[in-house]
## 1
Amino acid sequence: MTLSGIKIVAAQEFRVRLRTGRWRWLLIAWVAVIAAFTGLLRYGLGVARATSDIGMDNIGLPLFGSLMLFVLGLALLVSPALAAQSINGDRERGTLATVQVTPLTAWEITLGKFAASWITGLVFLALTLPFVAWAVLEGGVGPLRALAVIAVVAVLIGVICAMAQGLSALFARGITSTLMAYLLVFALTVGTMITFLLSLPMTMQEKHFTVEGQTYTRTMAQPDLVWWLLAPNPFVILGDAAPAPPMQFNPYTGKDEPVVDADPLASIGVMARAMRTDIETYDPETPTSSPAVWPYGLGFNVLVGAGALTLSARRLRTPVHKLSRGVRIA
């Protein structure tokens, strides 16, 4: 496997994608949707600050957090379409065998196709940078925090592209792999949340609390036993992986505390870490000191993505000894 072989396959993939004019319209639609969302959200936050007593000093925090969550949601919709037909689509058109008979190895073809889909997804992400800069200029979000969050979104886009490509190698029909890719995204987002909520009743235990010398017993759910079910959720990963928000003086406690209520990313991160901590040892005054969840969720997704690429390489090996029914060679 050589880097030049990967670049050859990736360049060919880009040529095929650029031959159709739909990509430029898709990019224009992407920018238009992001611009409309950011503009309307900024207007709404400005009205909320002017007409309420919330005391929101930095609009950039909720603007940036909401924008990145929205961008991640759109990326999860676009990424499967970038790679779900990268292998079986070429096989259906009879062009895959032409590449397989060249000196290119199976891993060069696999990584070249993956690089093309991932870079295309990164182009979509790059188009959101002007709006991210807008949120940073509003205040409350440092450049390093913004770069860290963008990096996590970029990795998640690559993971989804790898999973979709694995499905493209596994299924013979492009429509089937595309459908399964979107079902996989649904399972990672909505499915993990539903599974977590359905598992909570099975963790009910009695807990003892002592308040002013009196002991109380309550039967409560223990999310720290099933927190791992929600860890692979991309939104949980993004919220928990975001660096801590800036410190701000809280007049009610008289301490400098991280701004959590105004930041959607920080709120998700605090919720995720609270689920991993036993309710008897959880300290609400220091929510960000609880164990992190995102390394486990992101690590799991990366391993699944790597497994999908390995599956793609195995299915691209030549000579082919066994084919699915109705699959053509060239």
## 2
Amino acid sequence: MILEIAEIQIPPGQQAAFEAAIAHGIKTVIAQAQGFMSARVQHGLESPERYILQIEWASLEDHTVHFRGGPLFPAWRAIVGPFFAQPPRVEHFERII
């Protein structure tokens, strides 16, 4: 299992619309992706325009090759991309304990 963590910054005042969009995108697009296991979104308290998206993938390739290289990625970005104040910072983690 691989954990993708994406740090997302949105413009001020767009929280409600972004939260609706990301929930819709996860439910209708990401959930269809090969190797998708689960997703959750965290909202910053001190930085209300900052979000952390966590997605569990069966393998790194499920995210980097199959999802990003397939037709679902443009659909996902069409839903959430308009809210990005800057490109998200994305890293992958592997559980060791």
